[in-house]
Every structure is written in C-alpha cells, then in structure tokens.
Design a protein that fits this description.
The chain has 8 helices and 4 strands. The chain has helices at about 15-20, 40-45, 65-75, 90-110, 120-150, 160-170, 185-195, 195-205; strands at about 1-5, 25-30, 55, 60-65. A 4-stranded mixed sheet has the order 2-1-3-4, covered by helices on one side. A hairpin with a 2-residue loop joins strand 3 (about 55) and strand 4 (about 60-65). The structure holds glutathione (GSH).
Length: about 210
C-alpha cells in the first residue's frame, strides 16, 4: 500500500489531497517534527534531505512534492489529474506546477524559515517581510490569471493536480497581512476547492480543523 510520510499541514497536503481524490488506499505515517523525527536516522534513510513529504510506492521512494504529484497523476491516468501529453494544456500544467513549487513555494520557505538565510535576527526579520511582499505579488499574478480565464480551476474548466498544490500554498499565507483568500477570484476558487469531499477528508486525516485557508 502507498505510504505518505507527513506532518499536519506540511507539503504533504497536496499529494495527500490527490490520494483522496483518487480514492487510492494509502497509509499516512506521521513524522513528528515536534521531536525532530524528520532528522532521525530512520527517516533520513528514506529522505536524505530530512524534509516532508516522502512517498513510498512499492520499491519506489520519492521526495519532492511536485514529483510525487506527477507520479500520482502518471500512475492513475484515468483520473485525468493532468492534461494529455503533448497538448498545450499539458504545457500550461507544467508551467503552473513548476511556478508553484519552484517560485512560490521556494519564497514561502524564506518567509517561514528566514533564520536559515540569515543568522542575524534583525536581518532575518527583514527577509521575512520581503518574502511576504514578494509572495503577495505572486498571488496577485495568480489572481489575474484566474480572472482572465474565469474557470473554477487553475487550468480553467478542469480540476488537475495543480489545484491542491495551489490550495496548500494559499493555506500557508493565511496568517499574512494580505492572505491569498482576500483576492476575490482566488477567494472564490479556494472556497470551491474547500467544498470538495476529498480535500475535507485529507484535512480531517491530518487533524486540521477549518478554516482551511
Ligand atoms: N521542495 C520540497 C520542500 C520540502 C520542505 O521544505 N518541506 C518542509 C515542510 S513543509 C520541511 O520538511 N521542512 C523541514 C526542514 O527543512 O528541515 C518539497 O516540496 O518537497
């Protein structure tokens, strides 16, 4: 059975929601960051970076959230979590997935862990502020893209693996001065996703109560 190593609300959320959308039997394995279990010898054997999530699918051990999402889409083609290979929609799907993981998520990591970028507390505080402003700009851009096509999902009319990813990153902004949800189109988009039973099951399984974003 597929195993997803997780800590509530961490980057495991996106693949977790996908597993629920797919209805694939899976086992959640808690990696308790409260006791630094993500840096334990046993976990480092699975994920040498000591980060979450990790997916174990038979002999396959995978780190990197976006890679895990792509693997789930590829191994469940009938669920259409990604547009057809070679299509323009597929290219946009790649664009968004990579933008979310490589640009937005990377900047969010500076917001959450500025002390990793500067040991000077004052400088770390400034980095956090700057990262928040830059993330806000990115969500403005996402708002404009959603507004331009007017669809219920990031790719337009069809749900895909980039939607739980964007939901997860939006959730991570919920304590910012201008969280993702305050943008009208993005706010409606998030509200729509939050109504999906699969998303609600994933949050319940991770022990996270509403508000989700
Ligand atoms: N790009 C990686 C980032 C993973 C990551 O940084 N996860 C955070 C939790 S959301 C983590 O494990 N942080 C602990 C640490 O960096 O020590 C991915 O998406 O899998």
């Amino acid at each position: 059975m597929i195993e997803l190593y997780y800590f509530p609300g961490n980057a495991n959320l996106a693949p977790h929601i996908l597993l629920e959308e797919l209805g694939v039997p899976h086992r959640l394995v808690l990696v308790d960051r409260g006791v630094a279990a993500h840096k334990s010898a046993a976990y480092l054997e699975l994920n040498p970076h000591g980060r979450l999530p990790t997916l174990v699918d038979g002999d396959l051990i995978l780190f990197e959230t976006a890679a895990i999402c792509l693997h789930l889409a590829d191994t469940h083609l009938a669920a259409h979590l990604a547009p057809a290979l070679g299509s323009a929609e597929r290219a946009h799907f790649y664009k968004w997935l990579i933008y979310l993981t490589n640009t937005v998520q990377a900047e969010l990591l500076i917001y959450f862990y500025p002390e990793k970028w500067s040991v000077d507390p004052a400088e770390a505080g400034r980095l956090k502020q700057r990262a928040e402003a830059r993330v806000a700009d990115m969500f403005d851009h996402i708002e404009a893209s959603l507004a331009a096509h007017g669809g219920a999902f990031l790719l337009g009319e069809t749900y895909s693996a980039v939607d739980p990813y964007l939901f997860m990153l939006s959730r991570w902004t919920r304590l910012m001065t201008r969280p993702a949800r305050v943008r009208p189109v993005l706010g409606r988009y998030l509200a729509g996703l939050a109504e999906r039973p699969a998303l609600q099951r994933a949050f319940a399984a991770e022990g996270i109560a509403a508000p989700f974003y």
